[in-house]
Amino acid sequence: MTLPRIAHHLRAALIGALALLFAQPALADLPRPQGPVILTITGQIAETNAEGAAEFDLDMLRALPAETIRTTTIWTEGEQEFTGVPLQALLDHVGATGTTLRAVAINDYAVDIPASDAAEGGPILAYERNGAPMSVRDKGPLWIVYPYDSDSRYRTEVIYSRSIWQLNRIDVTD
């Protein structure tokens, strides 16, 4: 093998090695919603599937880890069973980095929720109540529900005000 040919092979090997060394693992892209969009997350997020936003249909939310909370609420009669995505898992899924969640309902009612509320054993983004999807008439399709009966800290006016139903937008900010 001639010297120029050896140099060519060495250069190609070096370029390949550098490409492997500096390659960053690609973040999993969020799929596009196939059904009606029921939740849009914007702001300080790393994962998007629309222009500056992460959009979710019901099937996409159901594909995320789910948790069921059995609790009473001040808005319903008797113990209820809520199923949905832990708020912490949802924020992790989109790579949220802000400290405040501006949660907005279909009717534009809005509330600020500290991102620190999104902790293990904390609120879920409920998409089912008592085993059935929630209609807009029944506070759906999404409702931030805290495990009110599990801890007296969840039975305050501040927490009740953060329990927004008919949720359709979250903006993650500082």
UniProtKB/TrEMBL annotation:
Residues 1-28 form the signal peptide. Pfam families: Oxidored_molyb. Residues 77-147 form the Oxidoreductase molybdopterin-binding domain. Keywords: Signal. InterPro entries: OxRdtase_Mopterin-bd_dom, OxRdtase_Mopterin-bd_sf. SUPFAM superfamilies: Oxidoreductase molybdopterin-binding domain. This is Oxidoreductase molybdopterin-binding domain-containing protein. It comes from Albidovulum inexpectatum. The lineage of its organism: Bacteria, Pseudomonadati, Pseudomonadota, Alphaproteobacteria, Rhodobacterales.
